[in-house]
Amino acid sequence: MNRKFGIKLDNIDFCIVGGGIVGLSVAYVLGQNGYQGAVLEGGPYFGDQSTGRNSGVLHAGLYYPKNSLKHLTCIDGNLLWRHWAQILRIPLNPCGKFVVARDSEERDTLDALYLRAQSNGVASVSWANRKNLEALSHFVKVDQAFFSGNSGVIDVPAAVTALRRQVESLGFLTLVNHIVQAIKPLGNEHVVSLKEGEIKARFVINCAGHGAVSLRRQLGLTELSPVMVKGTYLRLTKKLRHPWLIYPLPGKDGLGLGIHNVLEVDGALKFGPDTEPCENLDYQISQIAIDRIRESVHSFFYGIKPEELQPDLSGIRSRLLYNGEPYHDFWLKGPQDHQIPGYIELCGIDSPGLTAAPALANRVLRIVRSELEND
Ligand SMILES: Cc1cc2nc3c(=O)[nH]c(=O)nc-3n(C[C@H](O)[C@H](O)[C@H](O)COP(=O)(O)OP(=O)(O)OC[C@H]3O[C@@H](n4cnc5c(N)ncnc54)[C@H](O)[C@@H]3O)c2cc1C
């Protein structure tokens, strides 16, 4: 017994670093397969960083290069969330989404996105017919559009609560305010250092979001650098009902999917996120971001005055440079990649990481199994 932790935590099988949606999904999948350990969250709450600061959209897999990890885990994760939502009673709004070309100049880009969706094998994608376009024209400026029936919205706080509860009932300890300071391999194990003391773990799974790259550096893995891109949301102060998600075409900077409507579970409407490179985990909302989003909403959505949009919250996307060059995919590596037994890492999990989390967790399980077979 390690008295400093007040619980039996000196020697465990699995130490999951980070209590966002990825860490919790990994713990859930491992727990369902009979494995046990601890999830260590450095902050005061689970799911308080990127996980609690996004659009809550279950993406369908339209946007990502074919066969990239983003493409494959987005499609699998979307399906798995529908199952998890049912068994864990997580509210999910299967509203679908329209992707819209505002004028004829945007048609080629919309066509290209539609073709990518088809080539990616995304189900339930169809061009808007005349009736759809008429319905859409009550909400936005539209020239042409397609509908993605597999896109939807999930109640993220409910998902975090449900997963944490499940993970605990499957035998995992979940601790907040436990910042992992260092990970050191020791024989076939790892020593995980915290302010409260040390833990020995057979497997360490680095799901630390914005903290993931600095942890891996301590293991001598230096080819990645973190990049942060902030996204702000504004809340609509009046009641208005939008039946679907409505997205413009993605921004040319490749950093975001375009400022869209966000359908909250309670029926409230938000708009965002914009894209703004940033240096620190600073969630303050600038006037520049407010003006940018108001302007963008005004030029696309009907019936919304700029002053009816007020600051809500911001999130920060976790992206990567690989040897100094932008790296656009998720980074999921195990011992076969970096030759450190029992260490698995997930870095650069930006959008669609919420959607992909269950599928990423299944991939972690596969790595664990193959590592155990080689023991
Ligand atoms: C603006 C925005 C919009 C987005 N929209 C969508 C969307 O609509 N759909 C979608 O699928 N995805 C979306 N995403 C992406 C999605 O939010 C992320 O991919 C997902 O939340 C990543 O989860 P995570 O668990 O990896 O990271 P996080 O939620 O950031 O969790 C990592 C956790 O690790 C903890 N931690 C860090 N360092 C340490 C340490 N040393 N010790 C212990 N704990 C530590 C942190 O406190 C944090 O809680 C969006 C992201 C942003 C920012």
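Residues 1-7 have pLDDT under 50 and may be disordered.
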